[in-house]
Amino acid sequence: MLVHVESDRIPEVAEAIADLDGVSEVYSVTGGADLIAMVRVREHDALADVIADQLSKVSGVLGTETHIAFRTYSKHDLDAAFSLGVSDPD
Hints:
- With 90 residues, the protein is α+β, with helices and mostly antiparallel strands.
- It has one domain: Lrp/AsnC effector binding domain/regulation of amino acid metabolism (RAM) domain (Alpha-Beta Plaits).
- The chain is built from three helices and four strands; from the N terminus they run βαββαβα.
- It has a four-stranded antiparallel sheet with strand order 2-3-1-4.
- The termini are far apart.
- The model has no long low-confidence stretch (mean pLDDT 87).
């Protein structure tokens, strides 16, 4: 999720968000948002617990924008997808 933060409080807000249950990583970024927080939950209903009940209430958070991932692609997954039908020479 994208997090908009009071500019003079980014480091401490990032640390507070990183300490929340359900938050796996927090990145300080450039662009339209100040932070990107990766929230990982088993069920979508649990997002409300993390986002609305915890993260949005952290002092210094001005607003959030939630994006839900439907599928994950990692370099490993992409390498496997592009190698379909190609035999390994080793």
